Every structure is written in C-alpha cells, then in structure tokens.
C-alpha cells in the first residue's frame, strides 16, 4: 500500500514538472485531442485528411501557444491594437461573406446561379480572405511578446494562406465552379474582372 502511494506521488510530481508551463499544458492537450481524432479517423479510413487537419491546427496555433507561455507582463502597444483590428476586419469579412452566400442560396430564384454581389463582387473567395486576415491579426498581436526564433511562428498565417490558396480551399472550389459555369459568358466575365482572393487588381500569376 505504501509503495503504491509512493509511486502515485512520484508520478504526480513528474506530471507537475512536465506540465509546469502553459505551453506544455497546451501541447499535451493538443496531442491528446489529436490522438483521439486520429483513432476516429483511422476507424473511418480518413487518416490522411486528419493528418493534414492536425498539422493545420498545430501550426496555426503556434503564435497563441507562444503568447500563452510567456510570463512577462508587457504593456499593450500598437501591434496589439493593429492586430486586433485586422482580426476584427477578418471576422467581419468572413461572417458577412458567409451570410451573403447563405441568403443567396436560400432564394429559390438563384438555383443554379453563382453569387457575384456584395463582398463577392470584390473577391471570388471573400470568406477565405477573412480567415487569412484573422490568423494574420492574431500573429501580429501575439508578436508583441515574441523574441528571436519565436518570430518564426509567422508561418501560422502563411500556412493558412498556402493551404487555402493552393491546396484545400480555392483550387477545389474554382475547379467545381469552372465545371458548372465555365461556359457561361457571365461567369467568364466575373472571373476576368473579379480578383481571385485579394480585393485589388490581380498581379501576374495570382
């Protein structure tokens, strides 16, 4: 009985030592969630997609994990306010774009048509633009407490942009749209005159 109590106390001390920092706690929680998710994904034979999602979650959370692990009490500065502003703009952009698309699809008269008004008149994927802006704002605000290598967590918004722009989001939707409306002159004109993502004139290669 005494030996069991000793082992339990030893394990508790070891756990307290490992879990001493906020970053370690967040990492451990993230790892536990990923293991459970991977087990479910494996059971449904979708582990390849889950691996990408798990990587996405970990990389995008890096600035937040770094921020929460810092114990220095830094006063709020310009980067905090600008970052929050960018996040707010991104949140509003994504929310409004999604609402506009939902309203459009809810109208029976729009069956088989594509949306090209509201925010969708300035970007073909304004909801994804809002997502990128949100993660960019979070990084900027969190960077106020970063030092040295911690700035490498800028990979967070860059990773979100790369996946949405080149992997899982825009390429798939663009392919589906071309298959559905590619022969429609109105859609061809929409593509020609509406930026793919950023609401300003397209650069070569965008």
From TrEMBL:
<dbReference type="Pfam" id="PF06966">
    <property type="entry name" value="DUF1295"/>
</dbReference>
<dbReference type="InterPro" id="IPR010721">
    <property type="entry name" value="UstE-like"/>
</dbReference>
<protein>
    <submittedName>
        <fullName>Uncharacterized protein</fullName>
    </submittedName>
</protein>
<dbReference type="GO" id="GO:0016020">
    <property type="term" value="C:membrane"/>
</dbReference>
């Amino acid at each position: 009985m005494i030996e069991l109590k000793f082992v339990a106390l030893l394990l508790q001390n070891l756990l307290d030592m490992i879990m001493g920092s906020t970053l370690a706690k967040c990492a451990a929680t993230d790892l536990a969630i990923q293991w459970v998710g991977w087990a479910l994904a494996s059971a449904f034979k979708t582990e390849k997609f889950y691996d990408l999602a798990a990587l996405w979650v970990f990389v995008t959370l890096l600035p937040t994990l770094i921020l929460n692990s810092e114990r220095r009490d830094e006063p709020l500065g310009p980067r905090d306010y600008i970052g929050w502003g960018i996040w707010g703009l991104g949140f509003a952009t994504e929310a409004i774009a999604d609402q506009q698309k939902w309203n459009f699809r809810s109208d029976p008269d729009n069956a088989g048509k594509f949306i090209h008004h509201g925010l969708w008149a300035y970007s073909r994927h304004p909801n994804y633009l809002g997502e990128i802006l949100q993660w960019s704002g979070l990084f900027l605000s969190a960077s106020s407490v970063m030092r040295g290598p911690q700035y490498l967590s800028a990979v967070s918004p860059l990773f979100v942009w790369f996946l949405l722009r080149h992997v899982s989001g825009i390429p798939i939707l663009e392919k589906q749209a071309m298959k559905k409306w590619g022969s429609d002159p109105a859609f061809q004109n929409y593509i020609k005159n509406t930026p793919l993502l950023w609401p300003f004139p397209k650069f070569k290669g965008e």
